[in-house]
Amino acid sequence: MSTIHWIEVRTRSARWHSESGLPLPRRVVVADDRMRAADAHRLACEGTALLWRGDFHNARQLLRAMDRRVGRAAPGAADSPAETFHLQRRFRAHRARVLGKLLVLLEEDHSLALRRAPDVRRACDEAYGVSEGPVAVALTELLGVLGARQWRERGVYVPALEARIHPHYGVFAPTRGEYVDLVARAPLPGTGVRCAFDLGTGTGVLAAVLARRGVGRVVATDVSARARACARENVRRLGLAGSVRVTGPALYPEGRAGLVVCNPPWIPARPASDLDLGVYDAGGGMLDGFLSGLAGRLERGGEGWLVLSDLAERLGLRSREELLTAVEGAGLRVVGRVDTRPGHARVRDTDDPLHAVRAAEVTSLWRLAVG
């Protein structure tokens, strides 16, 4: 386990943990309410981490001041949407590294021994599991853990279910409802579906939609243990435990199904950490796995539903021809497609350097059959 060291009367140490894959700080100094934002920003840019020992609310104010100095978007312009995407992604990684240098120390019981600090123990227990002693984390990560706890408690209302889905920390939340609505309204193959697979289930929202549509048995898979635990909890909350079984980590479960649904990450780029797995699919690996395995897992007359945004195509990261060639190469054909336009907030954000691309985005449910 990685360990950080700092001097506070004497030399001290603690385990280092970063869910987002931030590197181990090599130099750590103690900081408190006397630390100026300009100095904090300079030290962080130089690679020095600041272990906060002052007031919790002052730490948040310092973090916001550092953020203003970093900026919100990469300077300069790119010649293409793909270059803009990569430029913005590199800038976000830089911003995360700088802001991630402001650290806090979680005690053995995951408490935070700072003035005016909230009780973070339950949120940290849910995110990190059983404590193994004091651990240092970035303040940005702790704030994300606290935000995730609120999402988990409050839930996300899903109109297609007329109920709330409760995402866990590190599991992609169904805040973009258009892909859920596609699965809720696309015509089921044949005269009905006895068994369906939901690959990469996440919170379990699509598995729940299929069960509510009358599919007698749904097998939901996910590579992430966190996602599987989240999906099982949501299935129980919705009273669907008798219809939905959650398993993994393999992409496909055993057997065949009349319907196989897959909503893979839409961007074929390398994730920075496991927290990015809901957005980035390195090399299109999950998409390729779904397509290559589909023909051997469908019942006669069954369909595979691929729910996919064309954002990667508009960014120049994958072409429509490449997608259709992969479909044909897997022994599949397109029997239908249902399109929708996203309505999330980023579509309306004109300050986003990729606004034009996002405003034109289309999300599709591709209906695929063997042959």
UniProtKB/TrEMBL annotation:
<dbReference type="GO" id="GO:0032259">
    <property type="term" value="P:methylation"/>
</dbReference>
<protein>
    <submittedName>
        <fullName>Class I SAM-dependent methyltransferase</fullName>
    </submittedName>
</protein>
<keyword id="KW-0808">Transferase</keyword>
<dbReference type="InterPro" id="IPR007848">
    <property type="entry name" value="Small_mtfrase_dom"/>
</dbReference>
<dbReference type="InterPro" id="IPR029063">
    <property type="entry name" value="SAM-dependent_MTases_sf"/>
</dbReference>
<keyword id="KW-0489">Methyltransferase</keyword>
<dbReference type="Pfam" id="PF05175">
    <property type="entry name" value="MTS"/>
</dbReference>
<feature type="domain" description="Methyltransferase small">
    <location>
        <begin position="191"/>
        <end position="267"/>
    </location>
</feature>
<dbReference type="InterPro" id="IPR050320">
    <property type="entry name" value="N5-glutamine_MTase"/>
</dbReference>
<dbReference type="InterPro" id="IPR002052">
    <property type="entry name" value="DNA_methylase_N6_adenine_CS"/>
</dbReference>
<dbReference type="GO" id="GO:0008168">
    <property type="term" value="F:methyltransferase activity"/>
</dbReference>
